[in-house]
Amino acid sequence: MKIFRLTLTLLFMVGNYFFVFAQSNKLDNLNNITLTGQVRPLGDLSPIENALVINTDNKLNFVKTNKNGIFSITVPKETKGILIRAENYQDLQIPIENSQLKLSSPYLLEPSAEYGGTGIIRARRKDEVSQNTFQQEEMAHVAGTGGDAVRALQTLPSVLPANVGSADVVVRGGSPGDNSFYYDDLLLPFIFHFGGTETIIPTRMIESMDFYPGAFSAYYTDTIGGVIQLRSFNSIPKRFSGEIEVGLIQSGIFLEGNAFGSSIEKEIDKEKNSQETHIIKNENEKNGQTNQSNNNENSDDAIGYRIGFRRTYLELYKPLIAKLANNTSFVTIPQATDYQMILNGNHSRGTWQIYLLGANDSASLSAPIGNSTTASGQNSFSFENYMETAGFKYNLNLGNGLGFRVSFQQRYYLLNQSIFGNNINIESQLYSFSFILDKKINELFSYSLGVRPKYQHYEAGLNVIQLPGGGMTTSFDSELAPVVQDKVVVDSFYGDAFVDIIFKPINKLTINPGLNMIVGSHSSEFAIDPRIGVRYEFIEGQTLKAGGGYYSQYPQPQYNAPRYGNPNLELERSIQYAIGYESKFWDDYFIDIQSWIKSSDNLVGPAVSNPNNKYENSIEMRAKGVEFFLKKKASGIWFGWMSYGISQSEQRDPGSGEWRYSNYDRTHSVNIVYGQKITSRWNAGTRIQFMTGTPYSTVSGGVYNENTGKYSPVSDGNTYLISKNDARIPYFFEVDFRTEYDFLFQDWKLTSYLDILNVFNRSNVANNSYNRDYTKQVYITGLPILPSIGVIAKF
């Protein structure tokens, strides 16, 4: 009986508790309201994650938006409003009337009138001694480059154009052919369109870019110059979006999205019906809660895609450009097209990507240079090249710190070129594999092992004079040079293997030793190159660094081709050292100072020991320099940087043994970049560049040859196997300007831009030659002032 009474008492107490609790909840529900919605930018459908939604009457009552920009917050009925705050956006305050927000969802945030931390930063991996990294949002806003990725590098002290307007770049005193260009693991034959106007891969296709001017690790091979490493996006786009650009000079389209995956719109609709409210009333709770429901990434079968196409049409303005450039002998009018398609996805233990890239360039001109055989007295030039590459990359996480990467590339390259009567037609096919094993032992030690075999089929139709290995010197007579009419076919197997180690004996010290073994088709093409880099952060933000090693590269195909060249050429070699100091200070400022030295030998040059060889490894090169780079990252209303480089590059004449300036030597280079936000929708920027002119060889006059009826340059009594380079063309100076204004609509925006290249219309000399009788110099100049207006629709 007692047990029965006790049981009834307990049941009554429990029932009474739940009754009181239920009544309390009903009372709370009557006194509170739940507000839900989505937060995203004005003019963009992408959601804003981690935006704060704050009760204006009680700042301890707040939540954060989830990955889809969704929030749900419970507030008292008498609350006057909420405040929405997100980084890089202006605050949005919304009143509450009749228990409802006065504005309807989605809640659109206006961009901030200040920069929120965008700027050029150092690389994520700080094992390399000489390395700069750009992120996509940084590259797109570098003043004076038109938002182009690689052109942003030309504001660094290590990177110079081979000539004004040239698509080739010179890094630390080397030659343009010494550099390597990569898009992920894809090896590109060139990086710029002809004329250097833009990169063959648009910035929207590039997540980040690493630049290594020298003394880099064993991971990179077959180069004694610099390395430009472009990286694609690994993420799958959450929604369909795109850009359409229409301009006076160029138009293009970019689209991205995903297939076979759940759309973000469906996720948002689902979340709006299932959000939970987090009310923060406890004063001890210092951090807001994030809406976590349905916020986990679900692996599915989604395939991301990114597609792009661009086309320039400068050729339509040829009469206008020629009129603007009335003080020059001629200008070049390039035309460029490129296209891209990238697919990517995830698998259970990694990621995969498929690539298709293509680029086409053409240009033509005529000019009164040298001994023309045409009725007009003009010599002609025409140029066309085409590149298409396809490939895939597969990343596999094997667990326990072990990863495996495999990639494949097929590349087709076509070049048709006619230079003053010399015709070259080249077709080549490249097939390459890459197998790389990464192992992380612990936080102090990791390494990578790799093997990268390649096969190339090369065909060339030649109707050209035999060019000297040291270049066309003043003593070279093209009329007496032998003419090669031949078809060259070369099949070659080559590749490399490497080991790259990261070792941290103490927390602040990083040592990066490595070996790269390069193997060619001939026994003479073999080298083992040891390299090492050291970084020591002796005080937080203050780092000393040094590095160096041996570097090798294959000769250019034309030099070791049968009949035209010398198949027995050896690898070109280089020894490089760099030492430097970098400092971060005042939060937003960074300084990098480096001193470097470079010594190269075995470079392809004229045949000295046996003229029948045509080309031999006969040239030596030495270069040295100091680089200074100061930048303020984008914060507040402005960003900018200044770079200065002083260097000297010389080659040794294999005939006389004298050292002479190399063809690409520039003593001084100065770059100043400035960008500013005028309002939240309007920004402007400028770039100022100065460079010492490149060397050239003087000629005192011409001698008429009665047998040929043409003129030859007067000899000064010396024989030069490389260019004499005893004078310089005028210095280069240019100021560029760009401004953009965004028209923001609810779901899309229209960006208008004005780009003005060469604001002061200065005739910068790109190159020089001589007229028919060598009595007058003929200057080849770059483009005159070139304004460009366009709009980009982004959705």
From TrEMBL:
<keyword id="KW-0813">Transport</keyword>
<dbReference type="GO" id="GO:0015344">
    <property type="term" value="F:siderophore uptake transmembrane transporter activity"/>
</dbReference>
<keyword id="KW-0472">Membrane</keyword>
<dbReference type="GO" id="GO:0044718">
    <property type="term" value="P:siderophore transmembrane transport"/>
</dbReference>
<keyword id="KW-0732">Signal</keyword>
<feature type="region of interest" description="Disordered">
    <location>
        <begin position="280"/>
        <end position="300"/>
    </location>
</feature>
<dbReference type="InterPro" id="IPR037066">
    <property type="entry name" value="Plug_dom_sf"/>
</dbReference>
<dbReference type="InterPro" id="IPR039426">
    <property type="entry name" value="TonB-dep_rcpt-like"/>
</dbReference>
<dbReference type="GO" id="GO:0009279">
    <property type="term" value="C:cell outer membrane"/>
</dbReference>
<feature type="compositionally biased region" description="Low complexity">
    <location>
        <begin position="287"/>
        <end position="297"/>
    </location>
</feature>
<protein>
    <submittedName>
        <fullName>TonB-dependent receptor plug domain-containing protein</fullName>
    </submittedName>
</protein>
<keyword id="KW-1134">Transmembrane beta strand</keyword>
<keyword id="KW-0812">Transmembrane</keyword>
<dbReference type="InterPro" id="IPR036942">
    <property type="entry name" value="Beta-barrel_TonB_sf"/>
</dbReference>
<dbReference type="InterPro" id="IPR008969">
    <property type="entry name" value="CarboxyPept-like_regulatory"/>
</dbReference>
<keyword id="KW-0675">Receptor</keyword>
<keyword id="KW-0998">Cell outer membrane</keyword>
